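Course assignment 3, question 2. Fill in each field.
Student: A.L.
Task: Predict the tertiary structure for the chain below.
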Amino acid sequence: MWNNFSGRGQAGFKEITPAEAKKMYDTGEAVLIDVREPVEFSEVRAEGAKLIPLGSLEQRLHELPSDKDILMICRSGGRSAMACQIAARAGHSRLYNVSGGTIAWYQSRLPVETGQ
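Answer field:
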């Protein structure tokens, strides 16, 4: 399902499952951005995720590629949806929110990492 921000002139983003996100990431055509706080990220994260906390995303938008799909993930999907909105307002269009976040990723038995 595409979330369009009609009336605001913003691009939308698509909700995808953790399994779909993993397949996209594995192709090399997508980056996985974790928007949680560093302490959450160090506890457990989707394998290969890069940390850009939601609070610093606007200042770090330049780190998001324009030539790849951007998969946003958080704990359960709320913060990553906000991250998609921020990136969309900045002109990014290849945005995907990982539905259920890291919780769903872990419950789906997809690869995770821990520690710094």
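Instructor remarks: Residues 35 and 95 are 14 Å apart (CA to CA). The chain has four helices and eight strands.
Grade: pending
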